[in-house]
Amino acid sequence: MRRRRRPLAAAVGALALIAAIVAPSSAAAAASAESGLWWFDRGRIQEAHDAGFDGTGIKVAVIDSQINPDVVGLRGANITLDDGSYCFDASGQPYPVVSADYVASSHGTRVASMIAGTGEAPAGGAPIKGVAPGAEVLYYSAGVVDGVEGEDGSDAECLRENGEPQGDDGRFALDRAISDAVADGADIISISSGSSTTVSQGLAEAYAAGVVVVAAMSNEDGITLWPAALNGVVAVQAFGEDGRIQNGTNGQPNLTDDVVVAAPGVGLLLPGTPGSWDAQEIGSGTSFATPIVSGFLAVVKQKYPEATGAQLIQSLLHNTGTKGEHEPEWNDSTGYGAASLTGMLAVDPTEYPDVNPLFDTEDPYAQPSLREVDEAKAALGLTDQTAAPTAQPGADEPSQGAPLAPWLIGGGIVLVLLVIGGIVLAIVLTRSSRRQATEQGGNHGG
């Protein structure tokens, strides 16, 4: 398999959604809404649900901004809200996980809808049904966006309870949330955000416990974000109804060395607008492609409950597109191809090697490294799961990118259809370092 070179850069800030509301005719609105459901039909998701596979019995952790669970389409959804707080304001008050403020919670609400949406529609709208509405979504709010009227909506300061900055103890909110999701029994972790903050400990614990971590790529051509660019993570690209991957704000296709798979993420119907939670609009971004992939994996895990996290990733890469099972081939556009729910459901993933094909076991400076995963196994009492020997330090220089920001909402570009809007990401390249991904973990076993 092709070995990928991943230049590492970091995003250090984000500007909020800035939108102006347009009031289209009801007929035009309905037509636009229906067009934003192309991905559900194309993926033949309802067929899987009709066959009894909707993620029931599987836990998918979503780590994002605040959420509004009372929006139409999430009322009654199978969502468990983590009532702990990872972020406190300067006065020591915790930021709640639930918020009705659009700026603060629209991103997380929309991400959750891609997995857990009930299909209930607001008056005049279209039903947004999630990929895995039967799965239990464990929701963690590990990042906050300033939703105070008149503010620019930039990331609010995320402090610890004692007023110290996140990371002063070596761990950031996102890292802690990953660990908590593992402890709460998540099978899959979906992260539609990116930053330069280290999440190495959380990822190590996830891999030690066999949890799949899926994360959004940047929406900018060639820009690398953590955790999508980190060792063993399924990094997701977005494409549209025409099959083309999204363009960045520079107008160029979003090509990158980090991409693992692609999923629908351009021209999707989303709940809520700046004017009303009962309205809908069309939007785009890797943020929405990511939970779709996570939902696919949950549905497949339900059908094949004995499959490990590593085998689910193997199946994801071996069954992309519409050509059936095949040996994976990579490119910098769609990675190993478009994630296929029907393709994965057709093949028992337990026939694949129990090896995460995206995890580099040889680089001692990878984040996380094999040594860190082995240490996490020991700490979690999972040492009976024998791991390969830890690689010795080689010629590669260590990756020492200093944490620069605790949170960045990744993805989500609103298009001019039901509402005119846009998301502008202020992204700064900080540095590059080298990491490699291992070859696929063996051939399809018999």
Give a written overview of the molecule:
This protein is α/β, with parallel strands linked by helices. It has one domain: Peptidase S8/S53 domain (Rossmann fold, 3-Layer(aba) Sandwich). Helices cover 22% and strands 11% of the residues. It has helices at 26-35, 38-42, 45-50, 102-116, 173-183, 200-208, 286-303, 309-318, 341-345, 370-379, and strands spanning 18-20, 59-64, 79-81, 136-141, 188-191, 212-216, 234-239, 261-264, 268-271, 280-284, 413-414, 420-422. The strands form three sheets. The protein has a seven-stranded parallel β-sheet with strand order 3-4-2-5-6-7-8, sandwiched between helices. Strands 9-10-11 form a three-stranded antiparallel β-sheet, with helices on both faces. Strands 1-12 form a two-stranded antiparallel ribbon. Helix 4 (102-116) packs parallel to helix 7, helix 5 packs parallel to helix 6 and helix 6 (200-208) packs across helix 10. The two termini are 20 Å apart. The model is unreliable at 1-31, 148-154, 385-411 and 413-446 (pLDDT under 50).
Structure keywords:
Rossmann fold, 10 helices, 446 residues, seven-stranded parallel beta sheet, three-stranded antiparallel beta sheet
